[in-house]
Amino acid sequence: MDLLKNPFNLLKVSPRDSQQRIMETVSGDGQGSVSQMRRDAAYTLCDPFKRLRAEVAWLPGLDASQVEILLGRLKKAPEMLIREENLLPTARVNLLTSAFKRIKEPPAAVMVHWVTAIIDAYGKVSLDILMPLINAARSAAGFPVVSDRKAVQAEVVRQRITCSTAIFRKLTELPDDDFRQAVTEIVDLETEQGKHKAPDMLNDLVSRYQRREKDFLYESYPENLVNKLASMAREGQTGDPLTSVADALAASAKAWDRIARPIRIFAVSRGGDDNASERIAGLIHNTAVDMYVMYGREDIFYKFMTLLKETFTGVTCVAYLVSGTDRAFAGFVSRVEEERQKKLRDEAAAFCRNAVDAAKSSPACALEQAKQILGRAPSLISTLRSRREVRQENISAVSDCIAQSLLACVLAMKDIRPDGAEEVDSILNSAVLYAESENIKSEICEFSFQVQGFGATL
Predict the structure, then answer these.
(1) Tens digits of residue pLDDT in 339-377
(2) How many Å separate Cα 106 from the centre of its chain?
(3) How far apart (Å, rounded) are the C-alpha atoms in residues 325 and 48?
(4) What is the pTM of this model?
(5) Any alpha helices (H) in 58-175, and if so which ranges?
(6) Is 237 helix (H, G, I), strand (E, B) or coil?
(7) Whole-Å CA distances, 350 to 46, 314, 346
(8) CA–CA dist 398, 354 (Å, integer)
(9) Strands (E), 395-452
(10) CA distance linking residue 242 with residue 244, whole number of Å
């Protein structure tokens, strides 16, 4: 119930005014709609059972002069009432909610501040404080006191739902992205990101948020992209098309998570889990494993595992899935990586061996074969260096292979023309730079001196 629509405000009476005083405020009125509203208000306040709702939705603990001042501010400067901290919890909840509704176009950060203040105040509402205040006013006014705690609690809950409805409607005035971010911040602040139990009023807000976002969550569900990625991989598609779908899946999961996050964090704070988030996290995890084990796409595997660690915070199953996969894959990934580096090393050796064989079988083209080795050498080394957990011995083995092959191509030449000595010397210098083994370096340098000497005698 809004303060300005409360029967106490409509009749300008206080909870301490007697039934006679209340009826005097409506005696002699006309028969218009306003008069009927006032009559209904009077009948509500004069009925001990109906009156309870107005009492709970009013400003208990304040006298008539204080009420008049605060209601004046509510009408003229509602944004200033956030500073009224020296109020009893029930009065603060009712005052701030009525003020919040009347603030014109507040930014998201201001809304978050107000909403958390209202939720915090409601969390301090106590029947042990509220009921004595209500009964003291009733005794002064000549109304029977309230002894039924359940009846008072029911009215407190009714007022909570009324306040949370008003709060949510105000939040929806924000643009969609700001609205979702504001709700997320409210949930994070009120639960410390799921560490503490969510208060009851937050339950009302999150329930309304979930109903509002239901269609969007359904439409943005990333399962279709998971199926598309798996289908493309089974059909043998590789390279950019597969990477593009994987990137789209990661972006879709992040967008879905931004909307689902307050629902998930709230569920965690209440000791549960968000089943939809668990399902999506499981799908992405299983897809990541399949991409690595079945299709050799470790880049997609690591992309999705990082996505799970950074995005699906608070999903209980994610911690178990990721840690379990890390343990299970530790040895497997190491073995697979070692095999792939060995394969690259063997491919480099085969390329160099073929070039040397070609040089030996046709000495006239030995120089050209050396140039081909030099042209391919940077990519052979960079491919190995780009591997995860690259092993230095593999780099050294490929580097030495390149250096030895360059020397072998030079040695395959039956004669070195005077005009080719400088070019041969350049190839040998490159071979020295690639060589990791000191023995190989010495062998190349020794022959290089011979070539330089040959050039000097020409």
Answers:
(1) 777 888 888 999 999 999 998 888 888 888 888 988 988
(2) 25
(3) 64
(4) 0.66
(5) 64-76, 89-102, 108-122, 127-141, 149-171
(6) coil
(7) 100, 50, 6
(8) 15
(9) none
(10) 5
